[in-house]
Amino acid sequence: MDFATELKRQVARVERGLGLHLPPATARPARLHTAMRYSLEAGGKRLRPVLVLATAERLGVTDDAALPAAVAIECLHT
After folding, report:
1. What pLDDT, in 10s, does the model give residues 18-34?
2. Cβ distance 14 to 49 under 8 Å?
3. Among candidates 45, 40, 49, 39, which has minimal Cα distance to 69?
4. How far apart are CA 25 and CA 40, in angstroms?
5. What is the rounded CA–CA span in Å between residue 71 and residue 52?
6. Which of 15, 39, 50, 63 is least enclosed by beta carbons within 10 angstroms?
7. First-to-last CA distance in the chain?
8. Each residue of 38-68: b (16+ CB within 10 Å) or e?
9. How do residues 31-60 score in pLDDT, each as one tens digit?
10. CA dist 13 to 8, 20, 30, 64, Å?
11. What is the DSSP string of 2-42?
12. What number of CA atoms fall less than 13 Å from residue 13's CA on the CB side?
């Protein structure tokens, strides 16, 4: 697998994780959650959370146990 393919795979995991771990835009306080989703869903390289997931895989974490940490890093960065 080449780098570009692996990067796309990991970015897709991060995007899925954002959808799973962020509160819905309609959850109270809706204004805050709408703003959070607006900022995080704008896209980007997602390099920091991808590095978290890649490191976890290299350390033997094969499931999505590192996904909350990767999402948290992206939230902090954004």
Report:
1. 888 888 888 899 999 99
2. yes
3. 49
4. 12
5. 9
6. 63
7. 29
8. eebeeeeebeebbebbeebeeeeeeeeebbe
9. 999 998 888 888 778 999 999 999 999 999
10. 9, 10, 25, 9
11. -HHHHHHHHHHHHHHHHHHHSPPTTSSSHHHHHHHHHHHTT
12. 25
Which residues neighbour 55 within 8 Å (Cβ) at sequence distance 6 or greater?
Answer: 66
Length of the chain, please?
A: 78
CA dist list (Å): 33 to 2, 4, 19, 53, 59: 36, 32, 12, 25, 33
pTM of the entire predicted model: 0.83
Tokens 């980007």 belong to which residue? 44
